[in-house]
Amino acid sequence: MDYSRRADVHLDPKGHFVQQTHIPEPEPPHGYYPVPLDYETGKLQRRDSRLKKNVRRLRLVSRVLTLILSAYMTATMSLTFHKYYSTRGIIIGGRNAWARDTKIWPTALLLGTSILTLLISLITVGLYCKGVSAANKANYTIGTVAIIAEVGTHMALWIGVSTAYRAGKDEHDLWGWTCSPKAGVIQGQFIDVINFERYCNIQSGSFATSVAQAVLAIAVVLGYILAFRRMRHKGKMEARAAELQQPTAYPHH
Asked: What is the 3-state secondary structure of the chain?
């Protein structure tokens, strides 16, 4: 007999044909229909994928918007400072175009915060331009520092800065002075030096932008909430994967 063509026969190490005994797989008891364990795992994977996409989109959009707003405020505050320092030495009618004992700290505070936020946003968006994996790797590397820098600095700092900038508005700071009636009285004298109404509008726009920065921080917080939710679901997926590796046990009757 030609044993070489039989599927249940194989050669042993000594070259003899040996018939392989087939052991049938155990069947579940009658009336027992277990639900596939990979069904729930698939649901977790799909949900994890959706959360992952939402986190990336929200964080990327919020960072791009932060970059744009910070660039705008940096430009407008720098323009205001340049106008102040370039015109404060011009004397017409025994005075310059600015208030006596001008205070510049509100404008300096807003400008400094804008520059800091701009630099952080440039680095973050630059990492995203290199690839999502590079940005995620950077976030993983700095860990808690990233959370403190992005959530804490963005939210708390911008709420505090916008509040302080508005509280500092009076007839002695740059914003308050350019919007004051006293500046309007001497506008005719300094028509070729400064347009007070224009700089009033510029700084009012910067204040509105600082409030927008604080509101945008809420979106950043939402992004981290989604990220933490995703981490929790990842933990469930890993636990489910470990469960799948365990042998299936059927109930005894």
From this structure: CCHHHCCCEEECCCCCEEECCCCCCCCCCCCCCCCCHHHHHHHHHHHHHHHHHHHHHHHHHHHHHHHHHHHHHHHHHHHHHHHHHHHCCCCECCECCCCCCCECHHHHHHHHHHHHHHHHHHHHHHHHHHCHHHHHHHHHHHCHHHHHHHHHHHHHHHHHHHHHHHHCCCCCEHHHHHCCHHHHHCCCCCCCCCCHHHHHHHHHHHHHHHHHHHHHHHHHHHHHHHHHHHHHHHHHHHHHHHHHCCCCCCCCC
